[in-house]
Amino acid sequence: MSVVEVEKVSKFYGPATAPVAALDNVTLTFGDGEFFGLLGPSGSGKTTLLRSIAGFVEPERGDIRIDGEPVRDKPVHRRDIGMVFQNYALFPHMSVFDNVAFGLSVRGVPKRAIAEQVAAMLDLVRLGGLQGRRPRELSGGQQQRVALARALITRPRVLLLDEPLGALDKRLRQEMQIELKQIQREVGITTVFVTHDQEEALTLSDRIAIFNDGKVVQMGPPNEVYERPATAFAAGFLGDANIFAGRADGCNGGLCRVLLDGGAIWTRDTLPAKGEPVLIAVRPEKFALHPAGRGPAAGDEPEPVNRLTGQVLQLVYSGSSITYKVDAGGQVVTVFEQNRSARPFAPGDAVELAWAPAHSVRVEP
Amino acid sequence: MKGLSSALARGYLGLVLLFLYVPIIVMMVMAFNQSPLYRLPIVWDTIWFEQLAQNDRLLGASLNSVLIALVNAVIATTLGTMAALAFARYRFRGRTLLQILLFPPITIPWLIIGTAMLVLFFWIGIGRGLHAILLGHVALSLPYVIVVVGARLRSVGVTLEEAAATLGATPWQTFWRVSAPLMAPGVVAAALFAFAVSFDQFVISYFLAAPGVSTLPVEIYSAIRKGFTPEINAISTIIILVSMGLMLLFARFYRFGGEG
User: Fold this and answer.
1) CA distance A95 to chain B (A)
2) Complex ipTM, two decimals?
């Protein structure tokens, strides 16, 4: 049960004359018992931050504290952390039992106590009965659980997960996500995990931070970050987004208008001064797709509805949903529709896109 | 068509094996032939082994060879493993240069290395003798050890050591519980390699041997120059059996631990 604080941490790579910042003044706090996802493209700094907390990377600037105590001068083996590596890093020359027992054994815990704790831990990860096996005799999911058991047995202050499910196939990954979350809850351990899988981040995390170029672009609970992306990058990286570029017009009663080349968009967000450039992000599932001229009339709603006319370019059928690419006045817009209608639109159909002003989210470039 | 090419391949393999093993088998058979002139039919006898038992020069040289090869294996494997660890796990100034410098000694003709060592050893007062031969052999086997152990370390990677550290193992515990067992097959292979490099070595040993003290290859060479005796067949047979045994051991060890 611990709090991990990362304060103004910077890490540079490359020559001293032209350093590249892998971490650029990052400040984050991981709360007690929290499951925190670090999300970002490769090279964005998320792994560097994880490895800095573990102690494999020494940041040039800033402080990392676990329970208020700075860990700068503590080597990895004295930081009291648990880590699950991308390919599990199980010791191939040891049995499952010895792998899980390793952390206790190097601490000099008596054999008897080790046997009890390992048995209990293997039960927790549902691996009872496999303790005599070698890692290579286990399936991917079982190896993953051994890695988790091995990391948890010393009751570390913080659990670090480096793309823990990346090596599993999709179905197994979804099962393990549920299980991982369950075990984490049961143990109540502060967990920081790195992933580039946005769905995984949304499913597992209590809070997430999106990284780009060594900086935290946005941080918050998954639904907040998803519904209210702060930048065009965050909008595009976490989920899909359509970005409309326009100019601020004016506001009236909490509704503001953004002028596009071929129309206007209403939003409930505040705008800069009139004439300033503005970016508006709209998630593909927020659109309602109507046949041209059959959309909701302007007077039907208590507030103005955003409307764009266009032409279907392409559709991608994926069973429960259909993805349309719609040409709306020169801009290609992605639209997700539930597969409910008896007759989906076909390429060439003239359509009308409608969505609520609240779903027009103003983002920074 | 398939049957034909398969038969051809088998035939080719058979010929290669024949080419490799016939001389060795002939020698081993002749070691048991009574006639010193290789007369047929073979009269089976162990007379040459009995004679060998009384040939102090050959036996002494064999003992020297085994001793040097053993000591060489220990020294070269220890130093080489340490060097391989440094190359694999640390970044330091001149690392790449040092790694490149490892290879020329493997490719430079032994004759030249031998001459160079002889000149240097005389010049700095080390002189000739078993100690000089040992020094030469260690220098010669080091690159092989570093390459063999280095390959193993690369295949094991650093992640397992990192995992051990996160679990609270001190660097010392990590080395003995994780790194050492994982690199053991490579180290054993390297030791056998170093032994073989030394045991087989003729040129450098010949240059650095003091009069009256020599190793087995050097002794065999001088014996042949004086006139061939089947005792050499006898000792060669023993050596072949021993090295084949070592080979089997090697094969077993290299599988141990596995790549899984």
Assistant:
1) 12
2) 0.82
